[in-house]
Design brief:
The complex is a heterodimer.
Chain A (H helix, E strand, L loop, with lengths): L1 H10 L14 H6 L1 H9 L10 H26 L6 H24 L3 H18 L6 H19 L1 H24 L2 H6 L2 H4 L8 H9 L6 H25 L6 H23 L3 H34 L6 H36 L3 H20 L10
Helix pairs in contact in A: 4-5, 4-6, 5-6, 7-15, 8-13, 8-14, 12-13, 12-14, 12-15, 13-14, 14-15, 14-16
Chain B lengths: L5 H11 L7 E5 L5 E6 L2 H32 L3 H26 L5 H6 L1 E5 L7 H24 L6 H16 L10 H6 L1 E5 L28 H11 L5 H18 L10 H21 L11 H7 L1
Antiparallel strand pairs in B: 1-2, 2-4, 3-4
Helix pairs in contact in B: 1-8, 2-3, 3-5, 5-6, 8-10, 9-10
């Protein structure tokens, strides 16, 4: 095909200044710009065009190809599949491709080249600046620093969430203490577990507060797990509904408090309030903390939506949303711990004083944990 | 009006050639170089999500099978079921986070669809952002759906409806913003881009010129026309391509006043020569800041006059 063209081209009339059906020789090509200038000035000689962008490409292309190959491997099998030498080359080649892109944007009109370079630079950027840590290393970092720092940063939101729960507890207690019928309207049937205004003190004592330990598998595996999944769902909901301007978050927090207050009033009537508090506190410290953190996360998101301040809502959310979500993720972990305590340890520790002691230890433990992680490792968890 | 730059002339060509047009954003790399990214379509993202769901369900079913196996063999069936439920919960929460960390913002579904989650501002994708965008998915989809399935009876109609409304509103959120952000993206400061691969084709410019064009003739076109010509010349050879090239060659001849007729068999060669000469002309102009976006642009005369 090319040969045909060439033969035909040679047969074309050589007359007229438009047509010069001659192939440039290799030696002309080597002359580059000089040859071009000559050809332009003197019509009739063999014209040779050497494009700056083509020369530029010729010089840089091996680097691009090398980067391309490295990126393809890193994308397919992970950055870990590159050797040490290749890992040292990667950032250099990437910056080379970036500078090539900048140059090409100003000197080249070859669309294919521009698109390729743009794509290559973007792929390089994603690989070089991609997450370098695996899920386990991230988890360790999260436990050591990320989680406590996120909680400390949102301390005022934690305070507000705590107040919301306390308001709920107070309201629930007063409502049920005044009229026991409120109990069944406040507490959904699924949560009561057969407890209610008609329960006697003996029932509450035997079936609930000092119920016999149901055995390892039932308490640690079955019960703890179902508690965890139920509580984690509520917690995540509390956090996520912060997107709806935080109103549902506050309502959920108050409602959790209401239910607790209703139970308090119920046990108070039977003179079991101290025993009940002990029974609840052993896991309740951790569980309420988790709900408060979820709520604080939701409130933080809501605050940035409602009061964006000087930067846009989107930027604000991007800046603060990660901290809020970190807090919610940590809260899910707290729910897990609370589920374990509630399902297992609660009935193993069977004196009220012992339970209070356990609760105090967990409470102090969490407090110390959230104050930790300013820089060094902490293992109080 | 938007300033004409080489970058948005690329957009115009893609529009003309009927290429898939995704909307674009510019992120600035930490080195300070602006990079254009293509925002993933709703359809692509849905497909990736459905694929991921498929993989996740497959893995969960595998766990359930293991549970059934243990049930048949062991005595502690209840334990196996609970463990499986717990593992499925963990699996769902860890699946997205793990893959987005290990595969630089891709999950298996995203990888099949050629998508990636990236930081909106061009910074590195942090583990906190990955956790944030995936934890929010629980609230967006799974929790409401789970609650809906657990509700029953006539009393729950309103609850079901409100949950359904929540799911609908939240899942339609990407339709209402230009960057196609879902709630998780908004909170985490991420966005999902499409990352199609572009191969580097061979250089089209020919150093040996069979034809010569005058300065005046090369003023006829701008870079838009040049890049459309490039696209035509890069098409795979076929009788249809040859016909198109023939048409284009005769159109160019008419416009630049080319006297000698170009024979059919020479059309490609003629166009390649013209492409090279035109590109040389325009690129040299651009070196001195005379960028001519298209043939009708006012700069054409200024560039011609100089």
């Amino acid at each position: 095909m090319i040969g045909d063209n060439h033969a035909l081209g040679d047969k074309l009339p050589a007359a007229g200044r438009n047509v010069t059906a001659r192939r440039a020789g290799r030696e002309d090509f080597a002359l580059g710009e000089t040859a071009r200038g000559l050809a332009e000035n003197r019509p009739g000689t063999r014209p040779v065009l050497v494009l700056r962008s083509a020369e530029f490409r010729k010089g840089r292309e091996p680097g691009w190809r090398e980067l391309d190959a490295l990126l393809s491997r890193a994308e397919k099998r992970g950055v870990a599949s590159l050797s040490t030498v290749e890992l040292e080359r990667l950032p250099l080649l990437y910056r080379g491709a970036l500078s090539s892109l900048s140059v090409a944007r100003s000197i080249a009109l070859d669309r294919n080249l521009l698109r390729y370079l743009e794509n290559l630079a973007l792929r390089g950027y994603l690989t070089v600046y991609g997450p370098q840590t695996g899920i386990l290393a991230s988890l360790a970092e999260f436990l050591r620093r990320g989680f406590p720092a996120a909680v400390r940063n949102a301390r005022w939101h934690v305070v507000v969430a705590t107040l919301a729960i306390l308001v709920g507890v107070g309201a629930g207690y007063m409502l049920v203490a005044g009229d026991e019928d409120w109990f069944s309207s406040l507490v959904p049937a699924g949560v009561t577990g057969g407890r209610g205004p008609s329960s006697t003190a003996a029932e509450l004592r035997q079936d609930e507060i000092f119920a016999p330990w149901p055995g390892f598998t039932r308490s640690f595996v079955v019960f703890a797990n179902s508690l965890f999944r139920h509580n984690a769902t509520i917690g995540i909901l509390t956090f996520g509904l912060g997107l709806a301007f935080g109103v549902p978050t506050l309502l959920l927090l108050v409602y959790q408090g209401l239910v607790f207050g209703a139970f308090l009033a119920l046990h108070e009537r039977h003179g079991l309030i101290l025993d009940f508090m002990g029974w609840v506190s052993i896991h309740g410290v951790t569980e309420f903390l988790a709900i408060i953190l979820c709520g604080a996360g939701g409130l933080l998101v809501a605050e940035k939506i409602v009061f964006p301040g000087r930067i846009s809502r989107l930027q604000n959310l991007a800046k603060n949303g990660r901290g809020a979500a970190t807090m919610a993720a940590g809260a899910v972990l707290l729910f897990f711990v609370a589920g374990l305590i509630e399902g297992g340890f609660r009935q193993m520790v069977d004196t009220t004083m012992g339970r209070f002691a356990f609760a105090a230890v967990t409470g102090l433990g969490w407090f110390a944990y959230f104050l930790s992680g300013h820089g060094k490792t902490n293992a109080s968890e | 009006m938007e300033k004409q730059t080489p970058a948005n002339s690329l957009d115009r060509i893609e529009g003309l050639l009927g290429a898939r047009a995704r909307s674009r954003r510019v992120i600035v790399s930490p080195e300070g170089v602006p990079l254009r990214v293509e925002i993933a379509d709703i359809g692509e993202r849905l497909a990736a999500f459905v694929l991921d769901m498929f993989f996740w369900l497959g893995a969960s079913i595998l766990f359930y099978l293991v549970a059934a196996f243990l049930l048949l063999r062991g005595s502690t069936g209840g334990v196996a079921v609970t463990l499986c439920l717990f593992l499925a919960f963990l699996l769902r929460n860890a699946y997205f986070a793990h893959f987005e960390l290990a595969w630089q913002g891709s999950t298996p579904g995203k990888r099949i669809c050629g998508l990636k989650a990236i930081d909106r501002e061009g910074g590195p994708l942090t583990p906190a952002a990955v956790v944030a965008r995936n934890l929010t998915r629980e609230v967006e989809v799974f929790v409401p759906l789970g609650l809906m399935l657990s509700l029953s009876g006539g009393a729950a109609v309103w609850e079901t409806l409100s949950l359904l409304a929540w799911v609908l509103v939240i899942s339609c959120l990407p339709l209402f913003n230009r960057d196609r952000l879902r709630a998780g993206d908004i909170i985490a400061g991420t966005m999902v881009i499409a990352l199609p691969r572009h191969a580097l084709a061979s250089e089209l410019a020919r150093t040996d010129q069979d034809y010569r064009f005058t300065h005046a003739q090369l003023q006829a076109y701008g870079s838009f026309e040049l890049q459309v010509l490039e696209e035509l010349l890069r098409r795979p050879d076929s009788s249809e391509t040859r016909r198109t090239l023939d048409d284009v060659a005769s159109k160019i001849c008419r416009r630049i006043g080319w006297a000698d007729p170009v024979p059919h068999s020479q059309a490609r060669r003629f166009l390649e020569a013209f492409y090279t000469a035109e590109r040389d002309e325009l690129e040299r102009g651009q070196l001195f800041g005379r960028y001519r976006p298209h043939k009708n642009s006012p700069e054409a005369s200024r560039a011609g006059a100089s």
